[in-house]
TrEMBL record:
GO terms of molecular function: hydrolase activity
Source organism per UniProt: Nocardia tengchongensis
Protein's UniProt name: 1-acyl-sn-glycerol-3-phosphate acyltransferase
Similarity annotation: Belongs to the 1-acyl-sn-glycerol-3-phosphate acyltransferase family.
Keyword line: Acyltransferase, Hydrolase, Lipid biosynthesis, Lipid metabolism, Phospholipid biosynthesis, Phospholipid metabolism, Transferase
Amino acid sequence: MTHRVRGRAAGRPTLPPRPGVGVTQRPVGAQDLGAALAAVRTGPQGPRVAAIFDFGGTVVHGFNPPPLARRMLRRGSARGALTASLLGSIRGARSEGEYERFLQAAMYDWAGVPETELAELGRQTFARNVYGHIYPESWRLVREHEAAGHTLVLISSISRYQVEPVAEELGIPHVLCTGMAVQDGVLTGHVEGKPLWRNGKADAVRRFAIAHDLDLTQSWAYADSAADLPLLQTAGHPVAVNPDPRVVLEAAEKDWPVLHFRPRQAPKATDYARTLAGFTGLLGGALFGVAAKAHTKQRRQMADSMMTYAADSTLRGTGVKVRVTGAEYARSPRPAVFIFNHQSQFDIVVLAEVLGTGFTGVAKREITKNPVFGPLMRFVEVTFIDRGDTVAAKAALEPVVETLRGGLSVVIAPEGTRSLTPRVGAFKKGAFHIARQAGVPIIPVVIRNAGEIAWRNSAVVRKGVVDVAVLPPIDVGGWDPARMDSEVEQVRQLFVETLLHWPEN
């Protein structure tokens, strides 16, 4: 039975703690992430309430210094030196001396650099390095505050070139940070105005609150270090995140909630060994699966067997577990167009495990260059499209309708590309047009945690649990192909809602 897509789901289920998320230890005053989310959900609502997030240590974990050899090489490169200065202060200063050294280095290194160049380098640095260090717990808190209609603010003592790319990815519209003076589009090497350090942050928040008619007594502030105590004290709901010893004492004295987020570490030797075992399992399982059905001489049976054995062997080799809610919708109705949120290369393995047999996919043409997934996906008759050529992409999708009418389901990522964080990007309409023309339903498959198992730009697999929620099928037969924007957006919102309020088993 199919159901037409509806708007925002009525009611919100109680959130179970997520594996590996929330509290790693339980000191006095500590609470889990579920309690923090519930406090936001049941607290004051609306745009007059602010949610103010400190940047380093609260939203983004820091970086270990690069090896000495790499630092020496960077000194000989102007671009390398700029990148090092942008990355090195991401964690945020823990003392007056550290912050003073950051300002002196920034003013010296950035003087004479065009502002557009530094802004672009900041975006590139985020896409290459910083995205993987955003705490998923902070991402969930931001989404909960967003759902409550709160005014979202990201604040930092460092520069906008480091902070704004993170704010854009998290959907935080307001950024408060230390300004760098610019003249004729070039940085002068001086600070503009008062640095946002200690009381400077608190003062900036108060000015922002007056300008935007915010009620700070009803607002939230999240921060970690002693230098941020004035910031925490501006809000009626201060929350200590990954607190240093001075903040721990203050939180205990004033009964503030305390959250501990798990830092995202660089791969360890065991992660590389696990990845190698998974890669071996993938290839071995694929070959065994094909051989097991070779006697049938039926390509479809061999393809199904290949995917089943390859997925199972990869999961066993990597130690990754897949936990599924709504598994009944993964098997029926068939055929269907399964759409999923795409954050990791590991999504392919997860989908094969969840959906089993009787499906193929649509993927970007670039993946044919992948030495592993390219040949495997060709064998299971995936349709490859050129995202840069709209006409060619539409023409390539036409045979997919016949594939569906022939009884084979299709898997499509409507975002078109992998996201850097759990953020659900805009949906393209191709999957919905295909489903409507073929007379089959759309079935959303929401994947959580895959981006932590394998980061977007990394082939290394970490041990963990991937949660999958298969939602009820959606009948798109009555949609007007010329006016389906609102319906497609409602489906996207189902993904957003499910990630924020995960369904119970």
